[in-house]
Amino acid sequence: MDDCKPDLTTFYNGACPVCHAGMTAYRRRSDAAGLPLTFSDTAQEPEAAACHGITPDQALRRLYAVDSEGRLYRGFDAMLAVWRRVPRTRWLKRTFGNPLTRGLSAWLYEHVVSAGLYRWAKYRQRKAAAQRP
Fold it and tell me: H or E element: which one contains 129?
């Protein structure tokens, strides 16, 4: 692997307070460990995600990640890819990504967590648009 190429680039909605807090914590841990991980805020840099075919609306809906081989992970699979690499989160990957819990965990991520955060993001966008002159 090229030393300058990140092992994983994660695309997250930095305008979402929950997403921002989580990814900031993961970035700090990976930086402290000197890991080649990149965290890209799609609210600030939508073009970075667009290079991988991720639209702004898709970036609002769920987490995305691209590994050094160019594989695209979306939703719960992207979360597992992050947990697999970030120190002190690997237990989350083992707990929620194992064959007994993976199906339910993925369903909860997609239909509860991701869906709820997406609705909240759309609400915040509408509210901000209504407050503009």
Answer: helix 115-131
> pLDDT-based confidence at 132, cuts 50/70/90?
confident
Calculate ∠ Cα 96-59-5, nearest 5°: 80
DSSP 89-102: -HHHHHHHSSTTTH
d(CA 7, CA 19): 20
* DSSP assignment of 17-42: HHHHHHHHHHHHHHHHTT--EEEEET
Residue located via tokens 């929950």? 18
- Rounded Cα gap, residues 84 and 73, in angstroms: 13
| pTM, 2 dp | 0.90
Do 63 and 75 meet the contact criterion of CB atoms below 8 Å apart? yes
Helix (H) or strand (E) holding 124: helix 115-131
Query: Does the pLDDT of residue 83 top 60, yes or no?
Result: yes
Cα-based angle 132, 125, 105 (whole degrees, multiple of 5): 170
Separation between Cα atoms, residue 112 and residue 133, nearest integer Å: 34
